[in-house]
Amino acid sequence: MIILHDYFRSSSSYRVRIALHFKNLDFEIRHVDLVKGEQRDNAYKTLNPSAGVPTLIDGDFKLTQSPAILEYLEEEYPRNPLMPTEKHARAYVRQMAMVVACDIHPMNNLKVWKGYIGNILGADEAQQMQWYMHWIHEGFAAYESLLASENAAGEFTLGNAPSLADLHLIPQLYNARRFKADLSAYPKICEIERNCLALDAFQKATPESHPNAPDGLEIIHGNSTTLTK
Q1: Which of 2, 37, 149, 168 measures 20 to 30 Å from 47, CA to CA?
Q2: CA-to-CA distance for 40 and 53, rounded, in angstroms?
Q3: CA 91 → CA 154, 183, 207, distances in Å?
Q4: What is the structure's pLDDT at 82?
């Protein structure tokens, strides 16, 4: 049995849930409440010394860091692949995934923009949001430009099948919409978002579908959402 330690709104956990559902794998969720600080409990830090989510356990194998987990799932469970076979296409997918994983996500991680920029450096709420939006737009502008210049996009980031790039992009879009980012400058990104969310695996993985999502959670990526630019 695969066990996934995650948090319902964690974008890196969201990525992994999409992959697990896309590959039709059975897994058990063990929720780690980041807001309550459960990731810093000694028992969990023994499991994941970085005090973050996700942590995946597959039998006697344990792995942290979502990009590594996604690559592991792709190699261990090759059914319903999320990586193309051709080497240049694979490199392109990794490049697009890293635009999110390296250029946006670390800068807007909760422990950075709230924990450090806010609590330690003393930025007020408006300054924290300026920080957040700066990195969203820096990253999405680069992603949108690459989609156009590389001429590789179709319904998804690469052609007409989801890839690991889309698994990184969609959770970041959830975050952007949660904080009311203006996405009108990124029409292709928004088209890819709509196409992904039409798929069952993506819907099953949304924060709204999470078994630990609180009642009354705002619908952003769930079935009843109406996406706008």
Answers
A1: 168
A2: 11
A3: 17, 26, 29
A4: 98
Distance between CA atoms of 185 and 112, rounded to whole angstroms? 26
For 78, half-sphere exposure in the C-beta direction (CA atoms, 13 angstrom radius) is 3
Contact 202, 196 (CB under 8 A): yes
Nearest to 177 by CA among 211, 213, 207: 207
Which of 100, 84, 196 shows the shortest CA–CA distance to 143? 100
Taking the CA atoms of residue 2, residue 176, residue 92 and residue 53 in that order, the dihedral angle to the nearest 10 degrees is -30
| pLDDT for the residue 117 | 80
Specify whether the CB–CB gap between 8 and 171 falls below 8 A.
no
Other beta carbons within 10 angstroms of residue 217's beta carbon come to 15
Q: Average pLDDT for consecutive 10-residue bins of the chain (229 residues)?
A: 97 98 98 93 94 96 97 98 97 98 90 78 89 95 96 94 98 97 98 97 97 95 76
Q: How far is CA 130 from CA 125, 143, 214, in A?
A: 9, 20, 27
What's the chain's Rg over C-alpha atoms? 17
Structural domains in the chain plus CATH codes: 2-76 (3.40.30.10), 87-209 (1.20.1050.10)
Is the full-model pTM beyond 0.90?
Answer: yes
Extract the tokens encoding 198. 């039409």
pLDDT given for residue 161 in this prediction: 97
| Contact assessment for residue 227 and residue 184, using Cβ atoms and an 8 Å cutoff | no
Cα separation of 42 and 218, whole Å?
A: 32
